[in-house]
Specification:
The protein is mainly alpha-helical. Helices cover about 75% and strands about 0% of the residues. Helix 1 packs antiparallel against helix 12, helix 3 crosses helix 11 and helix 3 packs parallel to helix 12. The radius of gyration is 22 Å and the shape is elongated. It starts with a helix and ends with a helix.
Length: about 270
């Protein structure tokens, strides 16, 4: 299979998987019978059945509904964090690379410091003291720890484009730095930033799940895939559906984004070598 065909197949597969996951996460909870949504002590830890396709949890909750609610929250955090991360990397990288000088050195010093700091330490300091983590705080922390490498790549690309004819022409025409960055530099980096955005979704989802699993992220009564995996771990051997269902959702989400990102990468490389 040639590269364009492989890229199209991967992009199509990843898009279908992510669309299905987003669709069932958004619409699924509304389609579940209200009787199945609440806690019922008469159906604790029941195995999968027609009434409860993924079984029930430790308080009689429907595991399917819990997974859909957790998928909603994880997707929300992952998508918003990915957008913020990519936007921050694009902004810092282009500004540093185009303007150069003292501002460039200052921004790259900040990048170097953040790269040296262990992410776990940063997360523990910011999230540790809170009894309940607002998801917006989680997004801010995930974005803060994930933009630096992409920012460096964007800066390097900006340095190579700074002397391009189209940029020089815009400068001679009196365009401001903001206009040049917006209309001439960022469009050249859209393929890179698109791939980074897609992959950042899976990275943010995994980070949120890991933090919530260890008690630094989303905490009950809020539900995310990380909290479901954490609560299901104790029952992984005795009532495996409580643990395997959210793990399966997490794997499908991460694999879908990874497949889509790989397809976009192959398409970009194919276009560059064409």
């Amino acid at each position: 299979m040639n590269r364009p065909s492989a890229a199209s197949l991967l992009i199509g597969t990843g898009t279908v998987v992510l669309t299905l996951l987003a669709g069932i996460a958004l619409l699924g909870p509304a389609l579940i019978d209200a009787d199945q949504a609440g806690q019922r002590l008469d159906r604790i830890h029941r195995p999968p059945s027609a009434a409860n396709p993924l079984g029930t949890a430790r308080l009689g909750e429907d595991v399917l509904l819990l997974c859909l609610q957790g998928l909603q929250k994880s997707l929300l955090i992952g998508c918003v964090a990915a957008v913020v991360t990519t936007a921050l990397a694009a902004l810092v990288g282009t500004v540093a690379g185009y303007l150069g000088g003292l501002l460039d050195r200052l921004l790259m010093t900040v990048v170097d410091v953040l790269l040296v700091l262990p992410p776990v330490l940063l997360l523990a300091v910011v999230l540790g003291p809170a009894e309940q983590i607002n998801w917006l705080i989680m997004v801010a922390v995930l974005a803060l720890q994930g933009w630096m490498l992409t920012g460096r790549v964007v800066r390097a690309r900006t340095l190579s484009l700074r002397t391009a004819d189209v940029v020089r022409s815009a400068e001679y025409g009196g365009a401001s730095a903001a206009q040049i960055i917006r209309w001439h530099l960022l469009p050249q980096m859209l393929p890179l930033l698109t791939i980074d955005l897609v992959l950042n979704v899976s990275g943010a989802v995994l980070s949120e799940a890991g933090l919530s699993y260890f008690g630094f992220g989303i905490l009950p009564p809020e539900v995310s895939l990380g909290t479901l995996i954490a609560t299901g771990t104790a029952s992984a051997l005795t009532y495996p559906w409580v643990f395997l269902a959210p793990v399966g959702c997490l794997m499908a989400l991460v694999l879908g984004t990874a497949v889509l990102g790989e397809g976009l990468r192959l398409r970009t490389e194919g276009a560059a070598t064409a």
